């Protein structure tokens, strides 16, 4: 029976797999195969190579443990997984800050990536030093989460709202606030004018 | 700047990064461990069933064998292949690459596409500067939507390298750097030190056997090893438990060779040699046989060679 079902199963929704993994936990791997690349890329951009490994694997473990509570009316599990990843990244940052405090250093603003690893990985790593990246780093964490879930995670406004459990109106206002700050940091655009444009 | 423009600009900051091959196995082990402990809790409440007992016995037997047995290592046949390869490496008279040359690593990836039976293939060529001071280049046959086909990795000269603009082009401004040579001259040259190096490549904690063997592939991907280090790498692999011989094998790209393999939780890792000369032929990560989910992702390092110019194919 199982063998016959398999080709059909490949076409099933994430929700189907989350539910099916309640009886056959091996099926949870399908969620990894579908979404690990996007989650890893996002995590890599946010916390660097070493920590990305940990936060992504923790994300899947947490998701697996919470799979009974998954709302199966949501066919695409991406917002759910990105929501868990966002929390994992924020836990990671807290642990990291606690560590730096413990060893008596000041808070790192961002994790400094290993330049060698990044160069091999091969692209705009050092653009993190460019003004845009500085503007991003200066954003409040909650606004940055929203902006990056959309820009790097590829989530829609609604999916972002679902991922971090806020109303979609709040997503819009955080994004708008981020836009004003990024615009003024980049182009020296008059921030007051930016506010007017949105009205 | 409107919101869409900002999002597009921010998107260009995200560099390409793929999950490392061992991550899938790691996640699966964590999930299996979590499911096991959940079941263990259930057993305390429920009657122990026959299948559960079998599973528990298998676990017990597994742990007894690894405690009482000899220090486990690669199978004898795999060790033989690896020693042959190490000898071939030591005999390699190819001169060391010159500072101005490039290490060309060619990789082929196979990935499933939604709604399509055929796997999508991507060819990647990377020309990495031998001494790290020249501009390196990465070329991808089929970049993802919005991605670049060629990316220049600026060389590090006099402690400075060009900065990237958000769109991936090089700027006139520079940042401090240290060169990343692709000719890896600082690696251990004996098997024991190399094994320790592989076990600790990912930072402080000791890697599992699967991760350690996967790190062989990571090292091959990172650059070109001097003959003595290459020999040490192959001999270190003889000390990794679970490494077995695959005397005849056809890789994902259809080439045949003789290989040593380690079956991880999900994926199998193959280090492949030419059957006659025992020279390096390839490295691949493929889903383990019997893993039901198809079509599956796999990747083959097709070759690692030395060329004079970045962009030169042969």
Would you spell out the secondary-structure blueprint of this structure?
The complex is a heterodimer of chains A (199) and B (314).
Chain A: H1 2-9, H2 14-20, H3 29-65, H4 78-102, H5 115-121, H6 131-138, H7 141-151, H8 157-164, H9 168-187, H10 191-198
Helix pairs in contact in A: 3-4, 4-8, 6-9, 7-9, 8-9, 9-10
Chain B: H1 3-12, H2 22-45, H3 50-68, H4 76-91, E1 102-113, E2 116-129, E3 136-140, E4 150-153, E5 160-164, E6 170-176, H5 191-199, H6 209-222, H7 227-237, E7 243-250, E8 256-263, E9 267-273, E10 280-287, E11 298-307
Antiparallel strand pairs in B: 1-2, 1-11, 2-3, 3-4, 5-6, 7-8, 8-9, 9-10, 10-11
Helix pairs in contact in B: 4-7, 5-7
What features would you describe in this structure?
The complex is a heterodimer of chains A (199) and B (314). Chain A is built from 10 helices and no strands. The radius of gyration of chain A is 19 Å and the shape is globular. Chain B is 33% helix and 28% strand. In chain B, the strands form 2 sheets. Chain B has a 9-stranded antiparallel beta sheet, covered by helices on one side. At the A-B interface, helix 3, helix 5, helix 6, helix 7 and helix 9 of A face helix 1, helix 2 and strand 5 of B.
């Amino acid at each position: 029976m199982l063998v016959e079902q398999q080709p059909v199963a490949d076409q099933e929704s994430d929700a189907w797999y989350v539910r099916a993994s309640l009886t056959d936990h091996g099926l949870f791997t399908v969620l990894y195969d579908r979404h690990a690349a996007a989650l890893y890329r996002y995590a890599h951009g946010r916390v660097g190579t070493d920590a990305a490994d940990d936060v992504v694997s923790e994300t899947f473990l947490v998701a697996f443990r919470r799979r009974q509570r998954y709302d199966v009316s949501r066919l695409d599990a991406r917002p759910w997984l990105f929501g868990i990843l966002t929390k994992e990244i924020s836990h990671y940052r807290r642990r990291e800050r606690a560590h730096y405090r413990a060893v008596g250093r000041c808070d790192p603003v961002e994790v400094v990536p290993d330049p060698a690893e990044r160069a091999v990985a091969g692209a705009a790593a050092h653009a993190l030093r460019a003004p845009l990246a500085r503007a991003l780093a200066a954003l409040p964490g909650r606004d940055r989460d929203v902006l990056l879930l959309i820009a790097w995670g590829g989530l829609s406004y609604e999916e972002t709202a679902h991922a971090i459990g806020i109303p979609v109106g709040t997503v819009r206002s955080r994004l708008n606030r981020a836009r004003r700050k990024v615009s003024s940091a980049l182009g020296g655009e008059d921030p007051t004018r930016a506010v007017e444009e949105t009205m | 700047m409107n919101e869409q423009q900002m999002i597009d600009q921010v998107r260009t900051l995200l560099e390409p990064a793929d999950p490392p091959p061992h991550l899938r196995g790691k996640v699966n082990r964590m999930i299996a461990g979590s499911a096991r402990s959940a079941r263990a809790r259930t057993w305390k409440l429920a009657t122990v069933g026959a299948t559960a007992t079998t599973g528990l016995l298998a676990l017990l037997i597994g742990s007894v064998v690894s405690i009482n047995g000899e220090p486990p290592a690669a199978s004898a046949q795999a060790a033989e292949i690896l020693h042959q390869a190490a000898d071939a490496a030591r005999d390699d008279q190819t001169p060391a690459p010159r500072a101005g040359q490039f290490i060309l690593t060619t990789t082929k990836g196979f990935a499933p596409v939604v709604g399509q039976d055929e796997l999508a293939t991507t060819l990647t060529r990377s020309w990495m500067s031998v001494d790290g001071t020249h501009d390196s280049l990465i070329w991808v046959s089929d970049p993802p939507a919005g991605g670049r086909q060629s990316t220049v990795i600026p060389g590090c000269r006099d402690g400075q390298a060009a900065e990237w603009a958000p769109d991936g082009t090089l700027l006139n401004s520079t940042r401090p750097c240290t060169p990343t040579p692709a000719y890896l001259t600082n690696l251990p040259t004996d098997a024991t030190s190399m094994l320790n190096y592989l076990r600790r490549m990912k930072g402080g904690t000791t890697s599992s056997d699967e991760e350690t063997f996967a790190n062989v592939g990571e090292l091959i991907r990172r650059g070109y090893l001097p003959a003595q280090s290459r020999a040490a790498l192959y001999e270190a692999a003889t000390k990794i438990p679970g490494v077995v011989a695959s005397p005849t094998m056809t890789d994902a790209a259809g080439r045949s060779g003789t290989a040593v393999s380690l079956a991880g939780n999900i994926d199998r890792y193959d280090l492949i040699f030419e059957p006659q000369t025992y020279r390096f032929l390839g490295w691949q990560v493929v889903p383990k046989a019997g893993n039901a989910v198809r079509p599956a992702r796999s990747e083959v390092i097709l070759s690692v060679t030395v060329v004079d110019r970045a962009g030169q194919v042969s």
